[in-house]
Amino acid sequence: MSTDNSAEKKAVPAYGRWKYPWLKQDFAASLVVFLVALPLCVGVAVASGVPAELGLVTGVVGGVVTGLMRGSSLQVSGPAAGLTVLVFEAVDEFGLPALGVIVLATGVLQMAMGALKLGRYFRAISVSVVEGMLAGIGLVLIAGQLYSVIGTEAPDSGIGKLAGLPSALIDAAQNGRTLVSLGLGAGTIAVLVLWRRMPRRLRAVPGPLAAVGLAALVALLPGVDVTTVEVRGLLDSVQPPSLGEFGELGTLALLGTVVAFTLIASAESLFSAAAVDRMHDGPRTEYDKELVAQGTGNAVCGILGALPMTAVIVRSAANVQAGARTKASRVLHGVWLLLFAALLPDVLACIPIPALAGVLVHAGARLIPVRALAALWRENRGEALILVVTAMAIVAVSMFEGVLIGLALSIVKTAWETSHIKLEVVDKGAGPVQAYLSGNATFLRLPKILDSLEALPQDRPVELDLSGLHHLDHACRSALENWRERHSETGTPPVKFTAGVDGDRVASGV
C-alpha cells in the first residue's frame, strides 16, 4: 500500500506540487520584455509630442491592467509606433488635455464592441488594407523621425516631410552640431540592424536597449552636444482631463479622431493577436475578450491623460521567444516599468533624442512589408495595388481618410470579382441560338451582359439557359426581361428562358 502511494507521488508532475509552475520562465521573460519596452515607450511618447513619462504610464497600464484580463495570454500591450502619427496630429490639433478624452472615449467604444461580440469581425478586414495602413504609418514615421535625428522641425504634411528630406539631410551634413546628432541617430539604426549578427551572449541584451544605452554613453563624452529627453516627473506628467474637456466630444472633428483611434488600435491589436497565436501552442486568443481588455486599458490611460495603447507585436514576440508561459510575464513587465518610472526617472534625462528617433526609424521600416508586397504582386496584383494605394493615401492625406480609401477599394475589388459572369453561345446554323449564362449576374457586369445578348442574331429564336447563375440581382432580371421584349418585337419567336427567370429563383432575386 505504501509502495503504491510513493509511486503515485513520484508520478505527480512538478506543476501538480507547485502553484506557480512557470514562475521562473515568466520572471525571466518579464525582464526581457521590460528591457525591450523601456526605450520604445519613451521613444513613442517623445515622437508623439507628449512627456516621456506618459509612454511609461501607458506601458504600466498595458502590463498591469490589460495584462491581468482575459483575452490573449501572451500578448503584451503598450504605446505603439503605429499610433504615433495619429497621436501627434491629435495633440497638435486639440491639445494635450484633450488626448485623455480621446483615449477614454476610444476605450469605452472598444469595450462596447467587445461586449457586443464584434471583435471577431475585425478579422474580416482585408489584410492588404491593414498592411497598407502599417506601411503608410511606417513611411510617415520614418520621414518625421529623420528630422528629429538631425534636430530640425519636420513639415506638417506627409508629402512635405518626404519632399523636404533631401535638402534637410544636406544641410545637416554641413552643420557641426546637426552632424553629430545625425551620426548618433545613424549609429543607433546601425546597431539595431546589426544586433542580430552579434554573439549569442551579447544578444541577451535587447537590441533597442543596447542601441539607446550606447548612444547615451556617447552623449556623455566631452564635446558631444545633443538634445536629451526632458524629464518632468511622473506625477507632474499625469494630468487627468477636466470635465470641461469632455465638451469637445460634441465636435465632429474630435469624434472622427476617436473613431480613427478605435478602428486602428483595435485592428492592430487583433491582428497582432493572430500573429502571436502562431508563435506558440498555448491557449488561443478570445477576440471579444481581448477587445474588452484593450478597451479597459485605454479607458484607464484616458483617465490618466496618457497615450493610447495597442497590443505590440515587437514586445509580444519578445515575450514568447523569451519563454513566457502565462500572463504573469506581461504583468511583471508592467511592474518593472512602474518601479523604473518611480525610482529612476532621472535616467531618462541621459537618453539622446536622436537615439530614440533612430529606434523609431527602425521600427517604422519594419512596418513596411517589402518582401510581402513583392510576393503579393506576383500572386494577386489587385491586393498589392490596394496595399500601395492605402499607404500612399495615408502619406498624402491623413490616417483616417487613407484607411477609408483602402477599405473602399477592397470592397469595390471584392464586388467586381464576385460579379464574374460568362456567356457561351452555341449556334448550329439552323434552329434556335442557344446561350448559356453562368456566374453572378449583378449590375456591375450589366453592360457586358447586354452587349453580348444584343449581338445575337435578331432574326433567329434564342434559348437562354440561366441554370448556371449563382446570383441574379433585380437590375439584371429587369434588363433581361426588357431585352426579351425588344428581341421579340422584330417578329421572331419569343426568347425562351430555359431556367431561372420564369421560376421561383428569379422571383426571389437569386
From TrEMBL:
GO biological process terms on file: transmembrane transport
Membrane topology designation: Multi-pass membrane protein
Ranges where the SLC26A/SulP transporter domain occurs: 23-390
Protein name: Sulfate permease, MFS superfamily
Gene Ontology cellular-component terms listed: membrane
Pfam families in the record: Sulfate_transp
Protein's organism: Streptomyces wuyuanensis
Transmembrane segments: 27-47, 94-112, 124-147, 178-195, 207-229, 249-271, 335-364, 384-412
